[in-house]
Amino acid sequence: MNNKLLNPLTLAYMGDAVLDQHVRAYIVLKLKAKPNRLHQEAKRYVSAKSQALTLESLMENEWFSEEELDIVRRGRNAKSYTKAKNTDIQTYRKSSGLEAIIGYLYLEKEDARLAALLEQIVQIVDER
């Protein structure tokens, strides 16, 4: 199956789960705290606003290949029929672009590249 042909919002759906799992593992090991505190910390990494800022940083630093940028653009430009919760549509679309590339790398089994991207995301958020 050619994962490039998947709906970009389907890729974003997958990417959301992959990022959430990575962030949860990271903060559980880092904080060793109670669930409420873990949830509050996780929001710093997985909120649409945080993902949009992270995508901007990655793009400014030319982190993505041309092929990856195409997936990001498709995810960012996809028309969603659900309303963005707690954010504006531009922020929501940027976060969808980041999630789409995460989902794509996961489905393509590009494990090294995916791991590098997830670590970069964590680093960018930690530096804020």
Describe this structure in words.
The active site is at residue 16. The protein is mainly α and 128 residues long. The chain has one domain: Ribonuclease iii, N-terminal Endonuclease Domain, Chain A, CATH 1.10.1520.10. It is built from six helices and no strands. The longest helix has 24 residues, at 8-31.
What are its keywords?
nuclease; RNase_III_dom; endonuclease; Ribonuclease iii, N-terminal Endonuclease Domain, Chain A; mainly alpha; ribosome biogenesis; 128 residues
Indicate the topology.
Blueprint: H1 8-31, H2 35-46, H3 48-60, H4 66-77, H5 89-107, H6 111-127
Helix pairs in contact: 1-2, 1-4, 1-5, 2-3, 3-5, 3-6, 4-5
By DSSP, the count of extended strands is: 0
CATH H-level homologous superfamily name:
Ribonuclease III domain
Do you know the CATH topology?
Answer: Ribonuclease iii, N-terminal Endonuclease Domain, Chain A
Note poorly predicted spans: none
Provide the number of structural domains: 1
- Helix content class: over 70%
The level 1 CATH classification is: Mainly Alpha
In round numbers, the mean pLDDT is 90
Keywords: Cytoplasm, Endonuclease, Hydrolase, Magnesium, Nuclease, Ribosome biogenesis, RNA-binding, rRNA processing, rRNA-binding
GO molecular function: ribonuclease III activity; rRNA binding
Enzyme class: hydrolase
Cofactor: Mg(2+)
